[in-house]
Write a structure and sequence with these properties.
The protein is an alpha/beta fold. The chain contains eleven helices and ten strands. It is globular, with a radius of gyration of 21 Å. Bound molecules: ligand C2E and magnesium ion (3 copies). The site of ligand C2E has 25 residues, from strand 2, helix 2, helix 3, strand 4 and strand 5.
Length: 278
Amino acid sequence: HEAKKTQQQVVNYFSDLSARADDLFNMSTKIKRALKNQEFELFLQPIFASKHDDMHGAEVLIRWPQNDGTFIGPDIFIKTAEQTGQILAISKWVVLETIQHLKKLKKAGFKGSLHVNLSTRDLESLDFYEFIEPLINLDPTLSDFIMFEITEGAMMTNIDTARSMMYKLNAHGFEFSIDDFGTGFSSLSLLRELPISQIKIDQSFIKEMLTQIADYAIVESTLFLANRLNCKVVAEGIENEYLQEALISMNCDYLQGYYYSKPISIDDFIKKYFYEEV
Ligand code: C2E
Ligand code: MG
Ligand code: MG
Ligand code: MG
């Protein structure tokens, strides 16, 4: 009986594994088609300077609209794209589309910078740099208007390449922000080794910081550390005025969250922030 049970477990294990391989394959086929047919869309979420309450910039967040009017969230397909090696193609598309967005935004009066999320996979070869270089030659002001967010959640397998690429981009003026700070494997050593000028405190620490003493302590210490390292700090996940008030009084530089706006399409963004309602 036990042997039979084990045998069944082994069968289940392999059928799960092959189901997952099928899922991955299907998803990678869909992603390829989506890139070809321009199915992806970029949404924008504003980031405000806490001192003057003006717009510091906006984060660019990818969306994948489906025929039924729903979206597949990046949390799902970005992970798949990292596994299938398609992430670099997505990141390149995001950068090119962000440049188009910038043109429209500047025309409307936007003066901030757009924060583009990169995957740590993008930093593991020089391909991304080779893609960016000609774009800088075309427009040397690009680095004034685009900065990169990298999440340290995924272990960096090729830190030497990542470091040299980040310093090369940094030499052209590009700045880097560590996203989801505090949730990954190596936040503190990244701060020491990489050209980081901004830290985004993960929303999981922000949400309950007014009732959870540990969360408050983590936020407070991150602000202290960032200040000592000359890094600016963004607090993500601001959902109410109490969090806003608390973070302003703690001298957090920038604030982002549903309290101000959810991520919205570029047209809605321009309507909301740059044109008076008629
Ligand atoms: P992230 O970069 O940490 O982005 C912040 C996420 O938190 C976004 O989810 C945003 O919609 C959400 N958010 C912002 N303010 C609030 C708030 O007040 N409350 C709550 N509950 N959530 C808030 P989203 O757009 O689903 O993106 C999820 C993740 O997917 C991003 O996390 C980022 O890691 C990744 N991602 C999104 N777009 C891209 C992209 O173009 N390229 C890459 N490589 N990754 C991306
Ligand atoms: Mg981000
Ligand atoms: Mg984040
Ligand atoms: Mg993230």
